[in-house]
Write a structure and sequence with these properties.
Layout lengths: L10 E7 L3 H18 L4 E6 L6 H8 L4 E4 L6 H11 L4 E5 L3 E3 L4 H5 L7 E12 L2 E5 L2 E6 L2 E6 L14 E5 H7 L12 H11 L3 E12 L5 H5 L2 H19 L3 H20 L3 H12 L1 H10 L7 H6 L7
Parallel strand pairs: 1-2, 1-4, 2-3, 6-11
Antiparallel strand pairs: 4-10, 5-11, 6-7, 6-10, 8-9
Helix pairs in contact: 1-2, 8-10, 8-11, 9-10
Length: about 325
């Protein structure tokens, strides 16, 4: 693709950070290099989620050109990203996690998709280093099964994706604001990017995958794996998967399926001593007022739930 700029839209790179000092030291140079390759005036923002590892001091001392906003307490991923989007000046928002190192020319391939006014987001090819091997991620597929939306990694030979990853994707800021951004009931992490992309598609907008936009991801070095136990992570994932269903699904057949299968999942969790799922269900119930309020905001939808996932049914394993 080369380094030639292909679009006149202004972009903002937003990096949410929580205790990521070591990762910032490692990956900020490649982010800055990619930003300069696109436009020397490209805005880079770090939103710090009340870190205690001197992340902010590092940035302010070493990279004074980067804007830094610090949360007054630790809120979580959704809130931190939403603050960055509100504060940025770009037309296109690029979200990058602290454990992401982008290739120098990764921006231009993303921008061509935004020539289509129907484009909401574009996800990068995420070369994820996991257990001593590299896995091609960034494209997601899904299906409804046993009362829930199930998702997995999709092959990279297609341009459609069920969601744009919150860790390495570009978003149309105007559409993001219209949708209300990430739903903060998904804090501290997980499912917020699936939820936002899903709402965008129900609104009739498109979410794309661009394999020419490459980032490198040291997934196991990320903050989540280092700050939370496997049990905590599983419980949060369960809770947010339940919240996703309760706030988004409008197809009657899928609602009935969810209600039919939910007692099965609860009983199975009980007999398997999987108390993470049971606790997640209770936590989701405690969020019901917020879920109902957010569900009512989502009533404007033009695309059915089944239509969104039907395009992936032949490749889902």
């Amino acid at each position: 693709m080369g380094d030639k700029r292909v679009d006149t839209k202004k972009i903002s790179i937003i990096i949410p950070n929580y205790n990521g000092k070591v990762l910032l030291q490692k990956n900020l140079p490649s982010v800055i290099s990619a930003a300069k390759s696109y436009d020397s005036k490209t805005e880079i923002i770090v939103v710090d989620d009340n870190s205690n590892d001197q992340s902010v001091f590092l940035i302010q001392k070493t990279y004074p050109q980067i804007l830094v906003y610090v949360n007054d307490k630790n809120y979580g991923f959704s809130t931190t990203c939403n603050r960055g989007v509100r504060m940025c000046s770009g037309d296109i928002v690029l979200l990058l996690n602290t454990d992401i190192s982008p290739e120098k020319n990764f921006i231009n391939p993303l921008l061509k998709h935004f020539d289509d006014p129907n484009c909401f987001a574009v996800s990068c090819l995420d070369l994820s280093f996991e257990k001593n091997k590299e896995i091609e991620r960034g494209r997601g597929i899904g299906k409804f099964a046993r009362g829930f939306l199930i998702h997995q990694r999709g092959e990279i030979n297609k341009t459609t994706t069920l969601w744009a990853s919150g860790g390495s994707s570009a978003f149309d800021k105007k559409k993001w604001i219209e949708l209300g951004g990430f739903d903060e009931s998904f804090n501290p992490f997980y499912w917020e990017d699936i939820d936002l992309s899903y709402r965008a598609q129900k609104n009739g907008w498109m979410v794309w995958f661009e394999k020419e936009s490459v980032v490198h991801h040291r997934h196991e070095e990320g903050v989540i794996r280092n700050q939370y136990s496997a049990e905590n992570i599983q419980e949060i994932a369960y809770k947010n998967q339940i919240i996703f269903m309760w706030k988004n699904i409008t197809d009657l057949s899928l609602q009935i399926s969810h209600l039919f299968w939910l007692p099965y999942h609860l009983l199975k969790a009980f007999f398997n001593f999987d108390f993470s799922f049971i606790k997640a269900f209770v936590d989701a119930l405690l969020c019901m007022v917020v879920i109902i309020r957010n569900r009512m905001r989502n009533q404007k939808s033009f695309v059915s739930d089944q239509e969104i996932v039907d395009k992936y049914k032949l490749e889902f394993k």
